């Protein structure tokens, strides 16, 4: 085999090596069959409610991609957003489907509306706030990491958790709270 052909084939195959262990905690092979997740539905019919009220649906699971990425759909019915936080192992990309959102990435703030996309690199503090009465986001985490488990753990909490409990859960899922949420 010529060197050029070997290098080209190696580059194409490289992302496929070790797909069963791309991300810690994901021990599965990527899906081999197509699937559809209908609007308003969760991939496994286990919808998660962010802070008990806003649907946060898994559309493509880490289990489907061998941990390479996951995709969520967030439907905001209240003007809120997460604490300022850092992902140690994942990049995030948000696409605004509906509504208006204020994003903070590092020290920069910007308002996004339907059709806008923003990239949030790992290890950079970020948060967002829904400014409109209703809003919808599609977001991708890459690699998927432990976000599905994080959301399920947070969703299962009874009452208002202490800051210590919230931080403990974040750290167990490769995140850290570094400040308060944005306010209107």
- What's the story with the biggest beta sheet? 6 strands, antiparallel
Query: According to CATH, what is the topology?
Result: Jelly Rolls
Instruction: Provide the β-strand percentage band.
Output: 25-35%
Distance from N terminus to C terminus (CA atoms, Å) equals 62 Å
The CATH class name reads Mainly Beta
Helical content stands at 10-25%
Radius of gyration: 18 Å
CATH level 4 superfamily: Jelly Rolls
| Strands in their spatial order, largest beta sheet | 1-2-3-10-5-8
Q: Tally the helices: what do you get?
A: 4
Number of strands: 11
The assigned CATH architecture is Sandwich
Uncertain stretches: 10-22
Number of domains: 1
Q: What is the string of helix and strand elements? A: HEEHEEEEEEEEHHE
Short description:
It contains four helices and eleven strands, in the order αββαββββββββααβ. It has helices at 3-13, 62-65, 147-155, 163-172; strands at residues 48-50, 54-60, 70-76, 84-87, 91-98, 100-105, 108-113, 117-120, 126-130, 135-142, 175-179. Strand 1 (48-50) and strand 2 (54-60) form a beta hairpin.
């Amino acid at each position: 085999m010529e060197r050029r052909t070997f290098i080209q084939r190696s580059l194409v195959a490289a992302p496929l090596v070790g797909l069963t262990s791309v991300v810690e905690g994901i021990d599965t092979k990527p899906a081999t069959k197509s699937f559809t997740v209908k609007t308003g539905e969760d991939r496994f019919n286990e919808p998660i409610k962010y802070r008990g009220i806003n649907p946060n649906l898994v559309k493509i699971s880490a289990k489907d991609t061998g941990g390479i990425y996951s995709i969520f759909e967030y439907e905001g019915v209240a003007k809120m957003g997460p604490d300022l936080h850092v992902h140690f192992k994942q990049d995030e990309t948000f696409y605004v489907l509906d509504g208006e959102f204020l994003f903070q990435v590092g020290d920069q703030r910007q308002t996004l509306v339907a059709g806008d996309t923003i990239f949030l690199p790992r290890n950079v503090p970020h948060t967002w706030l829904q400014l409109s009465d209703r809003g919808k986001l599609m977001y991708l985490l890459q690699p998927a990491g432990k976000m599905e488990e994080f959301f399920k753990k947070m969703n299962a909490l009874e009452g208002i958790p202490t800051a210590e409990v919230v931080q403990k859960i974040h750290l167990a899922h490769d995140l850290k709270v570094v400040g308060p949420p944005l306010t209107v």
